């Protein structure tokens, strides 16, 4: 069996749901798309996207010695309907990807094991990446044939839906490339229509400044008031456009049980609002949630409280009106003003 076939087989044994190969220069369209995205201001406060455009727009420049890119998908399909919690205003909705162990840790360890296998079997040099470097993973994934970028801009597949983390192994080995995948969304626009904040200016385009995932995770400071009320009880990320995709009928079980952790059980907003920094760090140790910090997290919780319409949450919000963090205090006052006495 040739090296590439054995590599793909090893990747599947490691738990990845799919593995395909492309060349680093297989995505020449990325540079223009990224430039247009940044020039439109769609990146919001994510200045690193503009700062690293040279690399993100040209994967071949990231490591000129690389000859091939192995793109891998790892499933994190939820066990229950992630939209159900949106009908429970007293609870905080946390995106599926962050409900368990931080995927960076799990996927990277898997990638490193696979990279060591590749070196032992085929030689060469490798670099592994999982959402922590200026790598256009979704474009490379489509170029490799893993799937295609849907109208919601996320990667999806006819074989495993769209619940997947992406990882990549750049190698100096010259591996045969797979054919690229084409788009199969057709006339469907469910992901566009379900978006609570109308964050898609057009199919295949995202204005991150209106995306709830961006607003709850990346955006620093107060969120515009007209957007706060559209966030509902989503306190970390948003899964609406992913969850509604019809291709999820082919979704496969999560690759690792650790993706379904304690946060899969939605917590009471009243409980989460009381977290101080130490309690927040302890509760979300080992989780992707930890990186946004207590202040931004409680800000999101208070917005959810203000949207709940539940009078019993008003005293909880009131206690935070003088919080040392001005953004938290602002969110608390906003929530108090919206909740019935």
Describe the fold and architecture.
With 341 residues, the chain is an alpha+beta fold. Among the domains are: 149 residues, no CATH class; 74 residues, no CATH class. The chain has 16 helices and eight strands. It has a four-stranded antiparallel beta sheet with strand order 1-2-7-4, with helices on both faces. It has a two-stranded parallel sheet with strand order 3-8. A two-stranded antiparallel ribbon has the order 5-6. α1 packs antiparallel against α6 and α14 runs parallel beside α16. The chain is elongated. The mean pLDDT is 95. One of its GO terms (biological process) is tRNA queuosine(34) biosynthetic process. One of its GO terms (molecular function) is metal ion binding. Pfam families: Fer4_16, QueG_DUF1730. Keywords: 4Fe-4S, Cytoplasm, Iron, Iron-sulfur, Metal-binding, Oxidoreductase, Queuosine biosynthesis, tRNA processing. This is tRNA epoxyqueuosine(34) reductase QueG.
């Amino acid at each position: 069996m040739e090296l590439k076939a054995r590599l793909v087989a090893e990747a599947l044994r490691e738990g990845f749901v799919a593995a395909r190969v492309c060349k680093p220069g297989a995505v020449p369209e990325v540079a223009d798309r990224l430039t247009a995205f940044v020039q439109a201001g769609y990146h919001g406060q994510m200045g690193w996207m503009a700062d690293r455009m040279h690399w993100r727009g040209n994967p071949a420049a990231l490591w000129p010695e690389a000859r091939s890119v192995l793109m891998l998908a790892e499933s994190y399909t939820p066990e229950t309907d992630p939209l159900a919690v949106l009908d429970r205003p007293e609870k905080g909705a946390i995106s599926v990807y962050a409900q368990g162990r931080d995927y960076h840790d799990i996927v990277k360890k898997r990638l490193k094991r696979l990279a060591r296998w590749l070196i032992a079997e085929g030689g060469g040099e490798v670099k592994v990446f999982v959402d922590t470097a200026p790598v256009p993973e979704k474009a490379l994934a489509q170029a490799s044939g893993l799937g295609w970028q849907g109208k919601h801009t996320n990667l999806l597949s006819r074989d495993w839906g769209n619940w997947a983390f992406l990882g990549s192994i750049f190698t100096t080995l010259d591996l045969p490339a797979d054919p690229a995948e084409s788009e199969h969304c057709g006339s469907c626009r469910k992901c566009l229509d379900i978006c609570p904040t109308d964050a898609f200016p057009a199919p295949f385009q995202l204005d991150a400044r209106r995306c709830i995932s961006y607003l709850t995770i990346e955006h620093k400071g107060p969120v515009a008031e007209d957007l706060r009320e559209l966030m509902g009880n989503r306190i970390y990320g948003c899964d609406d456009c992913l969850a509604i995709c019809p291709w999820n009928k082919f979704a496969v079980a999560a690759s690792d049980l650790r993706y379904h952790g304690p946060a899969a059980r939605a917590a009471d907003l009243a409980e989460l609002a009381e977290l101080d920094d130490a309690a927040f760090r302890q509760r979300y140790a080992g989780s992707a949630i930890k990186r946004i910090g207590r202040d931004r997290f409680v800000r999101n919780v208070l917005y959810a409280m203000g949207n709940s319409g539940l009078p019993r949450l008003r005293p909880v919000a009131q206690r935070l009106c003088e919080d040392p963090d001005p953004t938290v205090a602002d969110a608390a006052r906003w929530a108090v003003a919206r909740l019935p006495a």
